[in-house]
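> forwarded from #structure-qc
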């Protein structure tokens, strides 16, 4: 396979996954290789979350604190870079966002892998991973 040079690092590109404006590159030879602009370019303040992420809710009465797990889940699943930054602003920066990620009830496998790599989490720390394991054990027994 052809190599790709990103930020002066030559890697073998196995998969290129585009999440709106966010590019993530993973290499099969080294699954921890993940190059991301989200954490390096974040500056607090002035970001607005796209209302389309929460299209089924009335934004004039939406409670951002009680629905923080839902907001974080939608940002991971559907958001672009600006939505990540807005969620960081809402929930106490990257650290606060990271803590909320641990309690999100559902993420698909790809998004789970993404948050583990980018936010330096282990799958076992994620509620959605534990929930997925318990459901598999139930149906397989």
């Amino acid at each position: 396979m052809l190599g790709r040079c990103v930020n002066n690092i030559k890697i073998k590109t196995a998969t290129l996954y585009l999440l709106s404006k966010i590019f993530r590159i993973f290499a099969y030879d080294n699954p921890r290789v993940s190059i991301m602009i989200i954490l390096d370019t974040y500056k607090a303040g002035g970001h607005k979350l796209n209302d389309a992420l929460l299209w089924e809710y009335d934004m004039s009465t939406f409670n951002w604190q009680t629905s923080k797990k839902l907001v974080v889940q939608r940002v991971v699943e559907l958001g672009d870079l600006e939505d990540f930054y807005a969620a960081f602003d809402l929930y106490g920066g990257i650290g606060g966002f990271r803590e909320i990620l641990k309690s999100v009830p559902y993420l698909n496998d790809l998004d789970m892998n993404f948050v583990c790599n980018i936010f330096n989490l282990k799958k076992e720390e994620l509620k959605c991973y534990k929930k997925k394991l318990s459901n598999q054990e139930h149906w397989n027994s």
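QC bot note: Residues 3-140 form one domain. The beta strands are 3-6, 9-12, 15-19, 22-26.
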